[in-house]
Amino acid sequence: MVGRLRLWSGYVLLAYVTTHLLNHALGLISLRVIEAGRLWFVFVWQSLPGQVVLYGALTLHFSLALWAIVRRRSLHLSAWEWTQLGLGMSIVPLAALHAVATRVAHDYYGVQSGYPWVLASLASSGWWGIARQFSLPFVVWIHACIGLHFAWRLRPWYRDWLPVLYAIALLVPAAGVAGAAIALRDMLEMAQVPGFLRDVFDKVHAPNASTAAELYMIADTLAGGALVLLAAAFAARPVRDYWERRAGVVHLAYSDRKRVDRAAGLSVLEMSRIAGIPHASVCGGRGRCSTCRVRVGGPDRAKLPPPSPEEQKVLTRVGAPENVRLACQLRPPPGRYRITPLLPATSGPVEAYRRQPQAHGGERYVAILFADIRGFTSISEGRLPYDVVFLLNRYFRATGQAVQAAGGRLDKFIGDGVMAIFGLDREPEVACRQALDAARRMSLALEDLNEALSGDLDQPLRIGIGLHAGPAIVGEMGYDRAASLTAIGDTVNTASRLETLTKEFKVELVVSQELIDRAGADLSAAPMHEVDIRGRQGKLAVRAVVSARDLTALSS
Predict the structure, then answer these.
(1) What is the architecture, at CATH level 2, of domain 249-353?
(2) DSSP one-letter code for 103
(3) In terms of CATH architecture, what is 357-550?
């Protein structure tokens, strides 16, 4: 909830800044137009509802930013996080004088705080005042853009809209600052006329010297107060740490023999960062991306508090088992725990969504398909590497589309072979029917491919397909970005062996009777064989099908 309030208050402030910059952009036309546009800006933001929303959002956003500093256990931040924090801390000192010179001067001293007053003040303030004022939009805008990037980059639509958002992020501040600069240039040119600035100041009821001193004092007080609150937020951190150490110590043992001992109250992610242990966290520890998730064990795991509703929502989304938690949300009580990060420290936004519920590992009944091109070595001899790659890619596309159309998942391509899995999210009976359907579709796709390549091939491509079903260990295996969801076990080995048997039986498909029975299919017309499978006790009943295209289409 705190994160949402901070985000939505930021949206309100960004809307204010955006409309303000768009108003500035009218300066590209003329001073008269920019002042006319300000009337609409004032109508929205200086109305009673507008002021309530604006000042409420400003107070809430600033307060929650201070609270975020207090509650953050570690200052081991990324470069982007430090940039956003530094820019945010500089906004109040930069904006205090502008806010006082416009809003406070208007409400309490009768100054007409339009563009003539602001531009004339800048024209008479010197280059330091101009540089300070023109740096403010960039500081605020970059701070907001970094915040939006962290908030949105996990949304499915963000990547598609990124070019448009990037163009807006460039054009809005560029147009606003350019319009303000041209308006200031025009004011500086008119200021060359003797008495011009004095007439402008008289017209807008500019403050006298004593009133101006009061306004400067108010601005300095606001800036100083903000800095005091910021210092207090940082000073509260060691006090909080001291108080929490009284509650006990948390001992974390990582899988690479690293150990971390910290006071209770820290999250697992914060302990990792303090100890310098690389740990993925795409969303910066906000509990949105799931990339920081860890498997928790140890003698005191039963002491862990249950996941909050927000954490449970993310865990459910990725199909995490009971012993997996989000490191950024888990604050373990005193005790001893074993921590195993489940994603590489280099994980990015893609990894936050690509994991399937089965990725954490488990046993599941699946159907496995292996397929291989017959005699591909002789086919590829004498061909240029480009031709071989072209041929393989056409074959992989045809077989891959057949597998996906049947409802399966392509597991891997090995040389000229293909492995596919069925039943990751379906019942065993459906998985077996899908596997038979995939074999049929692959045979038909190969027939179409041979016809398309008839002028390039001396002999048509032939394939051997092996199908078997049974329990297998399914999970995400590998290292870093080479990790992928796959299956291992006797069922996989058997399916691979059945694909090899297609050469011995001189058929296109060898399928186990186990899979046929589960699918409810009738392949009694195909010869049955009892075969020995290396590493497997007893014989396995299989059917040898001459052409997989002759299989009846099975509904999944």
Answers:
(1) Roll (3.10)
(2) I
(3) 2-Layer Sandwich (3.30)
